[in-house]
Amino acid sequence: MKGSSWKEMLMPSVGMIFAIIAIVISMIISKIAMSKGLSSFIIVVYSNAIATLILFPPSIFIFITRSRRRPLTFSVFWRILLLALIGYFGQICDYVGISYSSPTLATAMLNLIPGFTFILAITFRMEVINWKSWSSYAKVFGTFVLIGGAFVLTFYKGPPIINQHLTSTFSSQQNWILGGVILACESMSASLWYIIQASILKIYQEEMIIVCLYSFFVTIISALISLLVERNPNAWMIYPDIRLIAILYSGIVGIAFRSCMTTWCLKKTDPLFVSMFKPFAIVFALLIGTFCFRDVFYLGSLVGSVTTVIGFYGVMWGKTQEKYYEGNNLETLAENNVPLLQNEA
Q: What pTM, to 2 d.p., does this model score?
């Protein structure tokens, strides 16, 4: 197989790894901030407002310079509004789920996203399964292996390897089951978010403007709902401590950077490619917990991490094989001067 297919995947892969690291750190900081009294509804309002302010100047410049070539139509506008509604639901489920459980469970539940996305992508014909092709088998089984590795990380401990005599920072949590159910809803909304975002990018490819409008709409929606939910004025007060750090990090890195990076990766690849990086979040969460918070590192964590990497490689191999054969078919058509529609007929 030519190396060009792997090169096409390299930059989106690096981008998604940075996006996943941003998610994990945001979860940990937000959990600590919410344990100090920060409301999950308030953090969504402030963080999206910060993201909107950051993205607004470059978005205006891009809109002015490229509006004639790529006009922002009503069709794109209402799709972004729908994306914001789903995104707001997902953000609230994320923060509420973490407040009821822990960042470790939150990252573990992300392993549901590749499965949900795979089903939705097939339903909306964004992914094609050809059971006569090894690449399709690689994608299907690689996805299930990747998900299985994340479940091993979650439910199998085994003997401790590192920090044997210490206890986990987030070991005592309440309402664990309720938090898991809420986080499962967040995973479903994230999968739907990828599908809708990919459909938007097909008709409008200015990812900076899309994310800016998305953050703006989420800010408006969350502010209206938070005014009804949070009646206590003190809940809106921000103090110069971990709560302020959580809001700033969530707005700058967790939303502005991560959303732009994820949207760019969606533009370069597809929803399945982006979603299959989610189970890596639990690997990063375990590493951060082990070396920063002195959590116990178990044998199950090692086995699950290795399994996740194997599944990831399987899906990557399937995707690159498809791109390779697709590129070869296009080259063959060009060399033979055969129109594409005629060849398909």
A: 0.76
- From the number of C-beta atoms within 10 Å of its C-beta (0-12, 13-18, 19+), residue 144 rates as middle
Integer Cα distance of 94 and 185 in angstroms: 9
How do residues 124-177 score in pLDDT, each as one tens digit? 877 777 777 777 788 788 878 877 876 776 667 677 766 555 454 444 444 666
Q: Break the chain into its structural domains and give their ranges.
A: 4-344
Distance CA 308, CA 147 (A): 7
Dihedral over Cα of 305, 309, 314, 319: its sign = positive
Q: Can you tell me the distance from the alpha carbon of 278 to that of 110, in angstroms, rounded to the nearest whole number?
A: 6
pLDDT greater than 80 at residue 283:
no
Measured between alpha carbons, how far apart are the two ends of the chain, in Å?
28
Burial of residue 85 (CB within 10 Å: 0-12, 13-18, 19+) is: middle
Residue 163, burial from CB neighbour count under 10 angstroms (0-12, 13-18, 19+): middle
Return the structure tokens found at 34.
Answer: 């919410």
